[in-house]
């Protein structure tokens, strides 16, 4: 079955460390997205990519980095520059310019310890 | 953002009907989506409106008025498992903007 897989489900980071969240999809979707979700707030867009080897900053890109070397993969690195990284991170994919919305991964909960 | 507004929390009784409203800015609007999200899980797609009117899918219906920048999600015959957050998402210029979600509490 096709789908979108995020790993790990839970991740703990020490102050000053970089961590990378994995997102893989086998839906043959062109576009992939990273969102951050905090309690009581809507999903906020971090980065998105419409095509391989290209990506754009979303609304809250500071302290994050991404790469899109393969169509199937869109990893997100949370750098030490991100001052408040504790959140629930959701990866999503869609057919480019589609009206059919997103398919979401199951999420990664990142906690700073 | 695109100022997607929806109520923070609602409570309803099992078997009843509940309507969750959502308003958005109309500039560059391409469609309105509703997602259901249980705590700690990924959002799942419920419905989609691009034209004015009502879309019905079983116990769930969604309505859109493009001129008013208004949508609602209607849930009928509420079940306990419907307790979740419901996210309204507006597609503007091919980018999604999400509301903060409405937490629905279904009580026996």
Written overview of the protein:
The complex is a heterodimer of chains A (113) and B (108). Chain A has strands spanning 4-7, 10-13, 19-25, 31-37, 44-51, 54-57, 64-66, 76-78, 87-94, 103-104, 108-112. Chain A is mainly β. In chain A, strands 2, 4, 5, 6, 9, 10 and 11 form a seven-stranded mixed sheet that branches. A four-stranded antiparallel sheet of chain A has the order 1-3-8-7, with no helix packed on it. With 108 residues, chain B is mainly β. Helix content of chain B is 0%, strand content 57%. Chain B has strands spanning 9-13, 18-23, 29-37, 44-49, 53-57, 60-65, 70-75, 84-92, 95-98, 102-107. In chain B, strand 6 and strand 7 (70-75) form a beta hairpin. The interface between A and B is medium-sized, with 23 and 25 residues.
* Oligomer kind: heterodimer
Q: How much helix, percentage-wise, in residues of chain A?
A: under 10%
Order of helices and strands of chain B: EEEEEEEEEE
Could you tell me the radius of gyration of chain A in angstroms? 13 Å
Tell me the major beta sheet of chain A: 7 strands, mixed
How many strand elements of chain A? 11
Report the sheet-strand fraction of chain A: over 45%
Number of helices of chain A: 0
User: Approximately what portion of the residues of chain B adopt beta-strand conformation?
Assistant: over 45%
Q: What is the H/E string of chain A?
A: EEEEEEEEEEE
Tell me, briefly, the overall form of chain B. globular
By DSSP, the count of extended strands of chain B is 10
Structural class of chain A: mainly beta
Find the biggest chain interface: A-B, 23 and 25 residues
Distance between the termini of chain A: 36 Å
Give the low-pLDDT segments of chain A. none
Q: Which of globular, elongated, flat, extended, rod-shaped describes the shape of chain A?
A: globular
Mean of residue pLDDT of chain A? Answer: 91
Structural class of chain B: mainly beta
CA(first)-CA(last) distance of chain B: 37 Å
Estimated radius of gyration of chain B: 13 Å
